[in-house]
Amino acid sequence: MGTCDGRCTLLVICSLQLVAALQRQVFDFLGYQWAPILANFLHIMAVILGMFGTVQFRFRYLIFYAVWLVLWVGWNSFIICFYLEVGNLSQDRDFLMTFNTSLHRSWWMEHGPGCLVTAVPGPHMAPDDHHVISVSGCLLDYQYIEVLSSAIQVLLALFGFVYACYVSKVFQDDEDSFDFIGGFDSYGYQPPQKSSHLQLQPLYTAG
Questions:
Q1: pTM reported for the whole predicted model
Q2: Which of 142, 163, 147, 140 is nearest to 53 (CA)?
């Protein structure tokens, strides 16, 4: 019963991670954030492997999933520090998110709740994919939306890591207690022995 409960809980966590990652992937595509897009893709693949390992009792897949979650927590921690400009990190270095292929920023910068976008005349030499805007009236600034999204990812990853370790430990204990190669031999089960000799009984007839 404990194994089923742990597996079911882990599957629910993986499902939430998958939904959150897909939602995030859509908005990163809209904002041309290529580094997060690549990271989200890898995360989606790792979550799918984790779900497959949970359903199919694959111990190694769960270990891979747990190791990836550690890296995923580190990546999202970097995103949080980046948008909060912790230390030497600055949002002016947006090429970190776009691989220096465009000047776009987060999609939420212009489409956040309550944001009013006003076009500002820019220099004539500005790139074609870049326009100068003024954003005001936002109920929540885009950097805090990105921080909140990353914080949710970290929270789900922590729960996923704990349950992945728990379920993989249960799987490993089950493998140690039951010998799949030897069948029921580990439990002392002895199949009925078939006699290879026929026992002849004398036949008496009334004279």
A1: 0.75
A2: 163
